[in-house]
Design a protein that fits this description.
about 230 residues; Collagenase (Catalytic Domain); 6-stranded mixed beta sheet; 5 helices
């Protein structure tokens, strides 16, 4: 509806501009300038809507479902958000090949579900993006005697109003201070956070907070993803 309305206004502005340009009707200079400014504003808004609508249309083949009791929890920041299920990903400069390889295997695991589609590509505008990489941090053992092998999570950008759009510019990184961090299991866990999954207390979940070398998504993990992105038909 918003696109149709803006197209109507754009056609009216273009028609008026054509009349002015061809001197069919004599109109004062200040009125002509108003028309030109209006055309420029409408064109800018139309481009923005077309960009966000392309992103929004990625969800048209999906059906959102309520979160079932046994689904892996999701991050509060992504709940009830109409996120596209398509993501682009890129690596921060200097990411070692070994780290890139485990991330690629993790991404293949998520792509195999058919719920999300993650492909190589740079961060751009209102398109979902994952930044993958590393950091180095010596984390003292806490009371539970655990160490931090990685970090990951969503970063939601949202615009509402005449033009409404949303994107997730997320990140997932491995703590290469610890050799154990460079594994498919840790990469899968952190990419899960980036996509919006939260920790689960189910030991067969890739989102279990302790590393159990789990690389396969559990039925509950799949249900959690579907609650965010829907189930692609």
């Amino acid at each position: 509806m918003r696109i149709r309305t803006l197209l109507t206004w754009l056609l009216l502005f273009l028609g008026a501009t054509w009349v002015i340009k061809n001197n069919i009707v004599q109109i004062p200079d200040n009125v002509q300038q108003t028309f030109r400014n209006g055309v420029s504003r409408v064109t800018t808004n139309l481009n923005s809507i077309l960009d966000s609508n392309w992103n929004f249309n990625q969800n048209k083949t999906s059906t959102k479902k309520d979160v079932s009791d046994d689904a892996t929890p999701v991050e509060s920041i992504v709940k009830n958000k109409n996120l596209s299920n398509k993501y682009y990903y890129s690596y921060q400069a200097g990411t070692p090949d070994a780290v890139q390889n485990v991330f690629k295997r993790a991404i293949a695991t998520y792509n195999a579900t058919g719920i999300v589609k993650i492909v190589p590509g740079a961060e751009q505008g209102w398109l979902n993006h994952l930044e993958l990489g590393t950091y180095r941090k010596n984390v003292p053992l806490n009371q539970s005697r655990t160490i931090e092998l990685g970090i990951g999570g969503p970063k939601i950008m949202e615009q509402t109003g005449v033009v409404s759009r949303i994107a997730n510019h997320a990140s997932a990184k491995l703590n290469i201070y610890y050799n154990k961090a460079v594994s498919q299991a840790v990469a899968t866990h952190e990419v899960g956070h980036a996509l919006g999954l939260d920790h689960s207390q189910a030991e067969d979940s890739v989102m279990y907070p302790l590393d159990r070398e789990q690389t396969a998504l559990s039925p509950a993990d799949l249900a959690g993803l579907k609650s965010i992105y829907g189930e692609t038909k």
